[in-house]
Write a structure and sequence with these properties.
By secondary structure, the chain is mainly α. Helix 4 runs antiparallel to helix 9. It is elongated and about 60 Å long. It starts with a helix and ends with a helix.
Length: about 210
């Protein structure tokens, strides 16, 4: 990415454009990596000790084995840490969205930490991670704007994927856990309860 950046940027690009395009390029690579990870996690959801329940038809005892979920969580956590440092380091460029992005990243990192040793409900990471799919086209739109190129197609794709992943899927996930709140209070430790019944709906609101 660092080698490719000079080929993408015009010679007279400002520092602000360079910083934003660099961030968008790194983020786009992460967005693409998230696609096979999500499908892999969905494939490995275990229902062996549970029966269908809730809005999504997934019972509270369903889980993804640690050997699959740990690596996926590490990828997201690594990106969120890098992105947070990038925003802070270039806070003058990212001033407008600095606080909201840091709060968003902190909430996701808190959820990853709270659920590091929890099996039950960890499958929720997969539909949450789907939100990165729309971010790919958001990043493409940022790059197109800064390079003065047409962005109508990528803007339309961003809007469609945002609606599907961050409104429909994420909303259904939040509603699914709220509907199972009584069972989750008995099943999960306090950290898991905070994660799924407090932080997750809060993150939905931040979308």
């Amino acid at each position: 990415l660092w080698l490719a950046l000079p080929q993408v940027l015009p010679r007279n690009a400002s520092r602000e454009a360079s910083v934003k395009i660099r961030e968008a390029m790194v983020s786009s690579v992460h967005d693409l990596i998230s696609v096979p990870i999500v499908f892999g996690l969905l494939h490995h959801i275990s229902h062996s000790c549970d029966s269908p329940a809730g809005i999504l038809g997934i019972g509270p005892l369903a889980f993804v084995p640690a050997r699959h979920i740990d690596g996926a969580g590490s990828v997201l956590a690594g990106f969120l840490l890098w992105n947070s440092i990038h925003y802070i380091w270039h806070c003058d460029v990212h001033a407008n969205g600095l606080v909201s992005n840091l709060v968003h990243h902190a909430a996701f990192l808190a959820m990853i930490a709270l659920n590091a040793d929890t099996f039950w409900c960890n499958w929720a990471f997969a539909p949450l991670y789907m939100g990165e799919w729309s971010t790919f086209f958001l990043n493409a739109r940022v790059i197109c704007k800064l390079l003065g190129r047409k962005e109508l197609a990528v803007s339309a794709l961003f809007a469609l994927l945002f609606l599907f992943t961050r409104v429909v899927v994420f909303g259904a996930l939040a509603a699914h856990f709220i509907a199972q709140a009584s069972e989750l209070r008995l099943l999960l430790p306090i950290g898991g309860q905070v994660s799924y019944l407090v932080l997750l709906p809060a993150l939905y609101g931040l979308n």
